[in-house]
Amino acid sequence: KRNATASQGLLPCFQHLLHALSLQTVVLFAVLLVSTTASQAQVGPEGGGASFFVGSNQRGAGGSPLTVRGFPSQRTEVFFYYNSPEDGIPGPEQNDHLQGFSMVFCYDCRLNCIEESFRIPPEAITSVIAADFVEFQCDNDPGDGDGCEMLLAVLVETVPPFRGDTLPPTSRPLMVGSVQFEVDSRVSCGDELPIEFCDGVNVRGRVPLQNVYAAANQSLSARTINSGVVIDSGRLFQRGDCNSDNRVTISDPISVLMATILAQEFDFEPSCEDACDGNDDGVLDIGDAVYLLGWMFRSGLLPPAPGPYIFGLDPTEDALECTMPCE
């Protein structure tokens, strides 16, 4: 962890955008994005200031994200968060209201960042408070001198009318975005692939970048809480992938029927019962096939976590088994 301190921020790789922005936005960009010397601005009471987090979409004590679980040769999704506890200080300069931020990461190059998979999930605060400017980049080149890095930059307001919108104060980390990584096939069970906040890397630009946030028209350094991807020894699956072919298609609800009401006619035993439990009620029955078919063809609800698109753990305790070990 690193303490929150006051400093002038960086993301000068976005200076080409300044000509299209208003004067007010140019000022904020200059504060947040242009590298200068450290300022003497305060960040609120002792122990205050914003923090950046990276982890899974599952939460632990206090709402902090848990470690991401991964599986060789499969994709896994990583989520980004911030918190900024209410500082209780009155006045026009609200250092606990974020006008924007830049998060900069270094990650293990056995993780391949899928840049086009970046998204703002519906549960993210950035889907409620729509930011005018969002930039995501990742650099998977381990030989460019600074390893594998990625950048997430957000400014809430860049175009008029300016209403003073900000990301709100919060003690519980709020999600701001996510991206998928593909895990290298050569990893081993128990390997820990770090994803760490790092200052001074350039991602795909030329200028070193920093982990900073903008508040009260000044740039402040954020605390950072690192995480990574742990290669799990089993129980990783896609919800609905009953036949374990690494995709969820019409063949999967058919496989559910073969494992339940048609079990006497077909010699089919799913290798991961949790994957067949389409509605995550802890029971493998015809209701799972109905649920999956409703999602596929009748705009029904998305199958519960970990969902049908990425591999993950079952967040629900039940008696169903999943025997999909990593090698």
Number of domains: 2
Taking the sheet with the most strands, its summary is:
9 strands, mixed
Rounded to the nearest angstrom, the radius of gyration is: 22 Å
Q: Into which percentage range does the β-strand content fall?
A: 25-35%
Give average pLDDT, whole number: 84
Shape-level CATH architecture of the largest domain = Sandwich
Overall body shape: globular
Measured distance between first and last alpha carbons: 33 Å
**Helix percent band:** 10-25%
Account of the 3D structure:
The chain is α+β, with helices and mostly antiparallel strands. The chain has two domains: 5-231, Immunoglobulin-like; 234-327, no CATH class. Helices cover 12% and strands 27% of the residues. The chain has five helices and 14 strands. The strands form two sheets. Strands 1, 3, 5, 7, 8, 10, 11, 12 and 14 form a nine-stranded mixed beta sheet that branches. Strands 6-9-4-2-13 form a five-stranded mixed beta sheet. The relative contact order is 0.19. The model is unreliable at 5-28 and 33-46 (pLDDT under 50).
